[in-house]
């Protein structure tokens, strides 16, 4: 499904991601952990195209994607929920989620301006999908509120609904549980499990090792931009290199 | 229901007014409508899509010169009027490709520079008539029916404005409109939803240019001449002031802002042309007023005139947000 091969990216001569290779199989939930500044979010940005790699190849569903613009990669089936909440201001919760349907519909400026059948057809489809995505993340009751006034937990859920609306093949979640309280966290875990059961491939960055171990089939550990461990969660957690990286950070 | 009544009222007033006004009042009414047309485009571009342009006056000029040149070379006026927004949009597409890579005030300055360059070109070139401009532009006519009276131009202007408002409304409340509003907040997040951000910015820039171009086309037939002096940088600033005063990101706000500023400037002009006033009084006064109005609005009515008034109407007063989201 996704193959990252020898990818590097540096900022001002300092590597944020260095020679990272990683492959994710169809239907797999792959957890990515690592200390602060390890390069996890940078790796996501390289995969989704918000940053371009200095070196290396990325292929997705058999396509070379490392030179494609982010919106093209999105249309191939990648959806990301960013670490920092990015809800669209001045739009309702529902409208925010409707944006997620952009890549799956086609009514453009002319159809919209002239209210052509294409527009009406797409609007119906978009509204239906947005409603079901809102329901799925439990935001139906908030649908007509301004999105930027939601508390952080709901903003996360909103982004998840927007991402799901695109019906992705690969879902990238960057610390989705940070800032969530117990109940919201459980709800998120249940949703991820449900998505996995539905066969969705997921890359999950998470600081809480317990949380990610529960959900992931596999753990990849990044430290100083490099992969230092990759395998089943139980093995990885016992790996001396991993322990050292985390202890090193703690001291 | 209230919207419907308000809409019907506005329509009735716009239909009746031209029949009641004298020619000098009609001139103000027409210029107001043309300014509103451009301002709706500014509101779409700035308020919804988050892109700043200090060069809308240039697109207005392109529309005016296009229609004028075509009419003077014998092309039917209607074809010239249709060509005006198309030429402006085409120019916006070409110039937008490099310019729209810039953001915020960089984009504002670049669009301002574009207008300055175009104006000086129009003042130098022979085809555009140099500083004197183009004169004796034929009256507008459709199929032999000549539109000569100011009242007829008033109807034409306000029909154009209605069209521009309808197109904007339809775009905003649909898939491409949501994409524009999304990229105004975050181009990254918009791209992640599959929105081709660069292309959408280009299209909305061209659309706002087309509105300005259409207004310019009507303007050239109404006044019968165009010259570089008709499109000073001040008008581009004026459109932004109008959009901000009325309320960015509202379609009716653009009209309200255009009306408020046009009437204000009209009043001031009477003052500035009083005997004994220096010759630079009109322009200095309008700059000062724009600055002042802008500051007052930004400080006290950050959402603009229309939303501020609308929120105070009893039937529009929204209940306080529920405790959970505070
Ligand atoms: N746009 C950028 N410009 C300069 N440096 C950057 C940029 N983005 C990331 N970095 C640097 O790259 C390194 C990796 O950052 P990244 O955000 O990928 O870490 P992370 O693993 O996601 O950390 P966290 O757990 O805190 O989210 C950091 O040292 C960071 O300062
Ligand atoms: Mg991060």
Automatic annotation (TrEMBL), chain A:
Keywords: ATP-binding, Nucleotide-binding, Transport. This is ABC transporter ATP-binding protein. It comes from Nonomuraea turkmeniaca. One of its GO terms (molecular function) is ATP binding. InterPro entries: AAA+_ATPase (IPR003593), ABC_AA/LPS_Transport (IPR051120), ABC_transporter-like_ATP-bd (IPR003439), BCA_ABC_TP_C (IPR032823), P-loop_NTPase (IPR027417). Residues 2-249 form the ABC transporter domain. It comes from the Bacteria. One of its GO terms (cellular component) is plasma membrane. The lineage of its organism: Bacteria, Bacillati, Actinomycetota, Actinomycetes, Streptosporangiales.
From TrEMBL, chain B:
It is found in: Cell membrane. GO terms for molecular function: branched-chain amino acid transmembrane transporter activity. Keywords: Cell membrane, Membrane, Transmembrane, Transmembrane helix. InterPro entries: ABC_transp_permease, LivM-like. Its main location: membrane. It comes from the Bacteria. This is Branched-chain amino acid ABC transporter permease. One of its GO terms (cellular component) is plasma membrane. The chain crosses the membrane at residues 28-50, 57-75, 81-100, 107-127, 147-167, 203-227, 239-265, 285-309. It is a multi-pass membrane protein. PANTHER family: BRANCHED AMINO ACID TRANSPORT SYSTEM PERMEASE, HIGH-AFFINITY BRANCHED-CHAIN AMINO ACID TRANSPORT SYSTEM PERMEASE. It comes from Nonomuraea turkmeniaca.
């Amino acid at each position: 499904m996704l193959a990252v091969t020898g990818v590097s990216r540096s900022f001002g001569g300092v590597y944020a991601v260095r020679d990272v290779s990683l492959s994710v199989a169809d239907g797999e939930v792959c957890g990515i952990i690592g200390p602060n500044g390890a390069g996890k979010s940078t790796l996501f940005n390289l995969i989704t195209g918000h940053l371009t790699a200095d070196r290396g190849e990325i292929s997705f569903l058999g396509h070379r994607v490392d030179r494609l613009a982010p919106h093209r990669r999105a249309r191939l089936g990648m959806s990301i929920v960013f670490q920092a909440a990015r809800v669209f201001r001045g739009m309702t919760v529902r409208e925010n989620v409707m944006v997620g349907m952009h890549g799956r519909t086609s009514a453009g400026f002319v159809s919209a301006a002239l209210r052509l059948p294409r527009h009406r057809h797409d609007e119906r489809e978009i509204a239906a999908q947005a409603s079901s995505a809102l329901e799925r993340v439990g935001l139906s009751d908030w649908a007509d509120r301004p999105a930027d006034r939601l508390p952080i937990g709901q903003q996360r859920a909103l982004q998840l609904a927007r991402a799901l609306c695109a019906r992705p093949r690969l879902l990238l979640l960057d610390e989705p549980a940070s800032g969530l309280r117990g109940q919201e966290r459980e709800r998120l875990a249940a949703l991820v499990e449900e998505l996995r059961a539905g066969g969705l491939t997921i890359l999950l960055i998470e600081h809480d090792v317990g949380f990610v171990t529960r959900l992931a089939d596999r753990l990849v550990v990044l430290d100083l931009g490099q992969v230092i461990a990759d395998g089943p969660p139980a093995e990885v957690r016992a790996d001396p290199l991993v322990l050292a990286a985390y202890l090193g950070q703690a001291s | 229901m209230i919207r419907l009544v308000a809409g019907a009222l506005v329509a009735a007033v716009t239909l009746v007014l031209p029949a009641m006004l004298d020619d000098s009042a009609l001139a103000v009414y027409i210029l107001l409508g043309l300014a509103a047309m451009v301002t709706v485009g500014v509101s779409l571009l700035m308020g919804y899509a988050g892109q700043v342009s200090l060069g809308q006056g240039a697109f207005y000029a392109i529309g005016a010169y296009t229609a004028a040149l075509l009419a003077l070379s014998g092309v039917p006026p209607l074809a010239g009027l249709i060509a005006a927004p198309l030429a402006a949009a085409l120019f916006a597409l070409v110039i937008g490709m490099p310019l729209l890579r810039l953001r915020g005030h960089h984009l504002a300055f670049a669009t301002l520079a574009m207008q300055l360059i175009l104006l000086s070109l129009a003042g130098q070139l022979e085809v555009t008539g140099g500083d004197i401009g183009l004169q004796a532009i034929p009256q507008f006519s459709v199929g032999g029916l000549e539109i000569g009276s100011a009242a007829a131009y008033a109807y034409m202007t306000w029909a154009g404005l209605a069209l521009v408002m309808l197109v904007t409304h339809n775009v905003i409340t649909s898939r491409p409109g949501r994409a524009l509003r999304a990229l105004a907040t975050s181009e990254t997040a918009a791209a992640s939803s599959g929105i081709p951000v660069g292309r959408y910015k280009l299209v909305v820039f061209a659309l706002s240019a087309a509105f300005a171009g259409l207004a310019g086309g009507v303007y050239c037939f109404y006044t019968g001449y165009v010259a570089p002096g008709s499109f000073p940088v001040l008008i581009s600033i004026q459109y932004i002031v109008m959009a901000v005063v009325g309320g960015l990101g509202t379609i009716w706000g653009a009209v309200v802002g255009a009306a408020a500023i046009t009437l204000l400037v009209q009043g001031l002009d009477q003052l500035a042309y009083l005997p004994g006033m220096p010759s630079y009084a009109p322009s200095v006064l309008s700059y000062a007023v724009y600055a002042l109005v802008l500051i007052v609005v930004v400080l006290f009515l950050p959402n603009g005139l229309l939303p501020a008034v609308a929120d105070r109407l009893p039937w529009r007063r929204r209940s306080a947000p529920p405790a959970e989201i505070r």
